[in-house]
Design brief:
Layout (H helix, E strand, L loop, with lengths): L2 H14 L12 H12 L1 H16 L6 H22 L6 H8 L2 H24 L2 H11 L9 H20 L2 H29 L30 H9 L1 H4 L7 H4 L7 H29 L7 H6 L1 H5 L4 H35 L6 H4 L10 H15 L10 E3 L2 E3 L5 H29 L14 H20 L7 H7 L3 H20 L2 H6 L5
Antiparallel strand pairs: 1-2
Helix pairs in contact: 2-9, 2-13, 2-16, 3-10, 3-13, 4-13, 4-19, 4-20, 5-6, 5-19, 6-8, 6-16, 6-18, 6-19, 6-22, 8-16, 8-18, 9-13, 9-16, 16-18, 19-20, 19-22
Length: 518
């Protein structure tokens, strides 16, 4: 099919859904895949959460990874079917709008958009320790990555630079994400190969051991799982992988800027998740086998840099640069995806100041004001870094943990919000099937549609409960992931605020005018 025929087909499908081509359709399959993969970002996920997974479940925690990737692939298949049918900016919002109702779609968009913009602040805050380390090494500075001003300046700069790049063209966003793909490959396969050349300290059998992680006396994070690995340590350690393997759905957020989106977006979703799973597994395997014979205590304390310390200093610096680029690429991709959700909602008149937010830059053909929203909101979250209690605060019936700044407490909602919006989307697909919806996009699941959708919904619901389930602050889940009741309460507050706004302003009435059955 020629480029002109493809553009015509893309435009016709967009018109059939009630919209005209306003954004610049310049992204290829690789560009679309790159944005999804940069958001998923194995380097960001593993470099942020490896020590928690290892500390909670021991080396055997690696085997929770293929389970998570395999089950999330079911979700990616459902999303791919929806993306092929509705290749529109805003992805999950659009799927809920068409599959169930305008009100249902609005709720999905509200939760998903909020979670995405919280993720921008989360990802960019993770870059601070690596930027300060590199600055201290190269420029002999004495920056403290825990200093609130340092965090604000570094994260603020990342958000602004990402916004500029996102604003000047979707192709630039694709190139930044494409760079991220190469960097992620180096940061995963490259690190594993470098450690292998230096020499592993363990054989493959080491990955099937827990090293006593299920027992309080031998758990290196001081967590007591009562001697239970599968129903204790593994159930919490799996969260180190659950917090990584999403983001592939952002391929759908930029569908209106992707050539032949109905065909390429589903493929990009699957490829991003599959490649992310393989590269993550290889990296974690390399890190585990490189663990010193003395044990994992030093690794849990010193993190991945303690393992890389055996490499030449120039190679350590090189990998440090790769990690920084990966974090930046991830933050840029998430911000771009969040802006497209805001654009999709604004185009349907579903949020305040919709007329302004839906504006498209006349030259760059990007949703420039929606990108501004994707800049201002994370900056608002960033201010929360100044709230950092020195001791546990008793609030109503629960304790807010000491030395956990409010930014991290809020962004812990990001993952639970993503899983809630994912669950609602897959549930919406199941409802639509029950009503007689038969997918007719370029990618369909055929007879596997029902079982795959049901299995995906069950997985998302169970894992969402595992993420938000409140527990004592002394437990692994509360101390390092959901902070007891905090994540659940933040999620409930966001849902309640959304319900109040929706009930009073009734944005679904505007959305319903754009809900063309096609």
């Amino acid at each position: 099919m020629s480029g002109t025929d493809t553009e015509t087909q893309d435009g016709e499908r967009l018109a059939a859904l009630g919209y005209k081509q306003e954004l610049s359709r310049v992204l290829s399959l690789f560009d679309n895949f790159s944005v999804a993969f940069a958001y998923l970002s194995p380097v960001v996920g593993i470099y942020s959460l490896y020590t928690l997974g290892l500390g909670m479940g021991g080396p055997a925690y690696i085997w929770t990874m293929p389970v998570v990737v395999g089950l999330m692939m079911l979700v990616a298949l459902v999303f791919g079917e929806l993306a092929s049918e509705y290749p529109l900016s805003g992805a999950l919002y659009q799927y809920g709008k068409y599959n169930v109702s305008a009100r249902y779609g609005w709720f999905v968009g509200w939760i998903y958009g909020f979670a995405l913009l919280a993720t921008v602040a989360s990802v960019d805050s993770g870059i601070v320790s690596y930027v300060t380390s590199l600055s201290n090494i190269w420029f002999k500075t004495h920056l403290d990555f825990t200093n609130h001003i340092t965090i604000f300046v570094v994260v603020g700069a990342m958000i602004v630079v990402s916004a500029i790049l996102n604003s000047v063209g979707a192709k630039i966003m694709g190139r930044v994400a494409g760079l991220g793909v190469y960097v992620e490959t180096i940061g995963t396969f490259g690190v594993a190969i470098a450690l292998a050349i230096h020499g592993f300290h363990h054989g493959f059998g080491y990955t099937f051991t827990s090293q006593g992680a299920q027992n309080a006396a031998t758990n290196h994070l001081g967590i007591n799982f009562g001697g239970h690995w599968l129903t204790g340590a593994a159930l919490v350690a799996v969260l180190a992988n659950v917090y990584i393997f999403f983001g592939f759905e952002s391929a759908g957020d930029i569908a209106e800027e992707t050539k032949e989106a109905h065909r390429q977006v589903p493929r990009a979703m699957r490829n991003a998740l599959l490649y992310g799973g393989i590269s993550s597994f290889v990296l974690v395997l390399g890190l585990l086998l490189a663990t010193p014979k003395a044990g994992i205590a030093g690794v849990v304390t010193g993190g991945i840099p303690s393992l890389l310390a055996v490499l030449p200093s120039w190679l350590q610096d090189f990998f440090l640069v790769m990690v920084i680029i990966a974090f930046f690429s991830c933050g840029t991709a998430v911000q771009g995806a969040g802006a497209r959700v805001a654009f999709g909602l604004a185009r349907d008149g579903a949020i305040p100041f919709s007329k302004q937010i839906r504006a498209v830059h006349p030259r760059f053909k990007t949703p420039v004001n929606a990108i501004m929203v994707g800049t201002i909101v994370p900056f608002g979250f960033l201010l929360l870094v100044l709230i950092n209690p020195s001791h546990n605060l008793h609030i109503l019936w629960f304790d807010y943990p000491a030395k956990v700044n409010a930014l991290y407490a809020l962004v812990s909602f990001a993952t639970s919000g993503i899983y809630l919006s994912f669950f609602l989307t897959v549930l919406g697909a199941l409802i639509a099937r029950g009503r007689g919806w038969v997918p007719n996009g370029s990618f369909t699941l055929g007879k596997w549609g029902y079982p795959v959708t049901v299995a995906g919904a069950v997985y998302l619901f169970v894992m969402m409960l595992n993420i938000v389930w409140p527990s004592a602050l002394s437990s692994g889940r509360a101390a390092y992931f959901n902070y007891g009741w905090v994540t659940l309460l933040v999620m409930l507050i966001i849902v309640i605020v959304g319900a109040l706004y929706e009930g009073l302003a009734r944005p679904d009435k505007n959305v319903d005018q754009h809900r063309i059955e096609s």
